[in-house]
Specification:
CATH topology of the largest domain: ABC transporter transmembrane region fold
Oligomer: single chain
Distance between the termini: 64 Å
Bound molecules: adenosine-5'-triphosphate
Shape: elongated
Helix content: 55-70%
CATH class of the largest domain: Mainly Alpha
Radius of gyration: 35 Å
Largest sheet: 6 strands, mixed
Length: 586
């Protein structure tokens, strides 16, 4: 996207703060006026000195100008610095909110590290850009004012100055787009670096076990090198711009000094005017450097605003219920199945083949339903549909007999609890994890669910008990899974959705988990994606999925008799169980 089209995006971030920006601009104008008046007052001091009259008045005015100018500049810096931080905070708040309201599919299509870079790094660039518009206007007015006052002093010298400014300005304008391109490329490399680094650190065990540390770090360092190369290019072009600007000014000063001295000698110019003029020439450097700095900051900010704006394509889950909704949430029903799927078809993207199709399923209010099937059969997709991470594009899902669109996402999820297969714990302590769904749960409730998963003694023995951080190594993988299960058991959900870990648990733990599920199934619905033989044998009803469809459903005995795929799946689980049993016994 060209910068001209991205500028409105940056302005959208600034708009809520326009009053502060105008105040900053006004302060800048006053500081500018004080700066512009200084050489004229200096000339007044020199003329008064030459005439031999009292110098007090011009010197007092000069001092007042210097002090007032400094105070106003200080005020402007503080104002714009605070504003910049507010804009960064606004942008971060809005992006973080957007991430957590987003549809899971939209988020997962992007590398997590890149999403993080948008919040941490790109918003930082808005910081610089926020004050740059004010800076640009200030500098533009400062430049124009300086040139006008130079014209008042001597038009010929102004002509020389303008010629130098035009030549230097044209060269700078030529170089600026290259700085912008290099900065954009550098930020893109930083985004890729974030994405790859995050993914690699997440998979650090696999990276190490594959002896891929060198290759992987080299790949990421490659991104860092790209970022450095682009930034170095930007730095080199910036350095050229600065050198050109400084050299141009120095040459102009020499030229103006020579021409001015010649004109003063011939009586065409007062010496005091020449000194004032030269002061203006030196002052010219202020607005010119401010212009270049602000244009650079603005370009980086515009590019960052563009990248942040791309996040708008992340679709949010609708926060409100659909058209079928009524204002009141109906009371829980006690009759009929809790969840019903009617002819449900779903896919992950437009034009992709359906991940599940024609699913007809009823989940009874009580009892344990196990879902089995080969890899890719659609088991996880079924859970995603129930949890509303994915919307069906055919058929309907009903909770308590009401279609999902008549409930909000929040209302549906309040009735379910979910234990995911991989990363089932969130950052924080054991207590934070257990109370994640119900932050108001008291310690008594927490100990009750820990007892249910047979973890109360182990947690009680930890030096920090419930306050133990889950990043510490004191808690094993199996214990983490049980903590996640305990969280899901808190406050008795209507439906417990459990995606069993594929890793085998030890016999005692497995028995504890099994007993827990059995107790839950007596009071409510439990649906498991089963990876253990014991879970399948324990289920009241089993759903066999294959190729996105429900192939068969029934009890273990029925399916074992009638369904060949089920028999194969059970045999595979039996072999896995037999293989772990001697290992555990040994
Ligand atoms: N995020 C996704 N984007 C696109 N396609 C997907 C996505 N997740 C799953 N699929 C596809 O949907 C189909 C069903 O996958 P699903 O993950 O539901 O199977 P599964 O039975 O849970 O498999 P597994 O036991 O291996 O986890 C597969 O063909 C899979 O390739």
């Amino acid at each position: 996207m060209p910068d001209s089209r991205r500028l409105p995006t940056l302005l959208a971030f600034l708009r809520p703060h326009r009053r502060t920006l105008v105040a900053g601009l006004l302060l800048g104008l006053v500081a500018n006026a004080a700066g512009l008046a200084t050489p004229m007052v200096t000339k007044w001091v020199l003329d008064t000195f030459r005439e031999g009259v009292d110098l007090t008045a011009p010197i007092v005015v000069l001092l007042v100008l210097v002090v007032v100018g400094a105070a106003i500049t200080l005020g402007q810096w503080i104002l714009l610095g605070t504003l910049a931080e507010r804009i960064v905070l606004d942008a971060r708040t809005s992006i973080i909110g957007r991430y957590f309201r987003a549809r899971i599919g939209d988020l997962q299509r992007r590398p997590t590290g890149e999403l993080v870079t948008r919040v941490t790094s790109d918003t930082g660039l808005l910081h610089e850009a926020s004050g740059s518009l004010v800076g640009l206007i200030n500098a533009g007015i400062g430049l124009a004012g300086t040139l006008v006052l130079m014209g008042v002093l001597d038009l010929t010298l102004l002509g020389c100055t303008l010629a130098a400014v035009v030549v230097v300005g044209a060269l700078i304008a030529l170089l600026m787009p290259r700085i912008s391109a290099a900065q954009t490329a550098a930020q893109e490399s930083v985004g890729q670096l974030g994405g790859t680094l995050e993914g690699s650190l997440r998979a650090i065990r696999t990276v190490k076990a594959s002896r891929a540390e060198g290759r992987q770090s080299e790949r990421i360092i490659g991104n860092a090198r790209d970022a450095a190369a682009h930034s170095i290019r930007a730095a080199k072009v910036s350095a050229s711009v600065w050198t050109l600007a400084w050299s141009g000014i120095h040459l102009s000063v020499l030229l103006i000094l020579a021409i001015g001295a010649w004109r003063a000698q011939r009586g065409l110019l007062e010496v005091s005017s020449l000194i004032a003029f030269l002061l203006y020439v030196f002052q010219l450097m202020g607005p010119i450097s401010e212009l270049t700095q602000n244009v650079t900051a603005l370009q980086a900010g515009i590019a960052a605003a563009g990248r942040i704006n791309e996040l708008d394509t992340i679709a949010a889950e609708s926060a409100v219920r659909g058209t079928a909704a009524t204002d009141t949430v109906p009371a829980r029903r006690e009759d009929g199945p809790v969840l019903v799927l009617r002819d449900v078809t779903a896919r992950y993207g437009p034009g992709t083949p359906p991940a599940v199709r024609g699913i007809d399923l009823e989940i009874p209010r009580r009892g344990h339903t196990a879902v089995v099937g080969p890899s890719g059969a659609g088991k996880t997709t079924l859970f995603s549909l129930l949890l509303r991470f994915l919307e069906p594009d055919g058929g309907e899902i009903l909770l308590d007999g009401r279609p999902y669109p008549a409930w909000s996402h929040d209302e549906v999820r309040a009735r379910l609890s979910y234990v995911e297969q991989e990363t089932p714990v969130v950052p924080g302590s054991i207590r934070d994890n257990l109370r994640f769904t119900h932050p108001d749960a008291d310690d008594e409730e927490l100990h009750a669910v820990l007892r249910a998963v047979r973890l109360d003694e182990k947690i009680g023995d930890l030096p920090d008990g419930l306050d133990t951080s889950l990043t510490s190594t004191d808690v094993s993988g199996g214990q983490r899974q049980r903590i996640a299960l305990a969280r899901a058991l808190l406050r008795t959900p209507d439906v417990l959705l459990l995606d069993e870990a594929t890793a085998q648990l030890d016999g005692l733990t497995e028995a504890a988990v099994q007993e827990c599920i059995r107790e839950r199934a007596a009071a409510g619905a439990v649906v498991t994606i089963a990876h253990r033989l014991s879970t399948v044998l324990d289920a009241d009803r089993i759903i066999v999925m294959e190729d996105g469809r429900i192939r068969a459903q029934g009890t273990h005995a029925e399916l074992y008799r009638s369904d060949a795929l089920y028999r194969q799946l059970v045999e595979a689980l039996r072999i896995a169980a037999d293989q772990t049993a001697p290992a555990l016994a040994g």
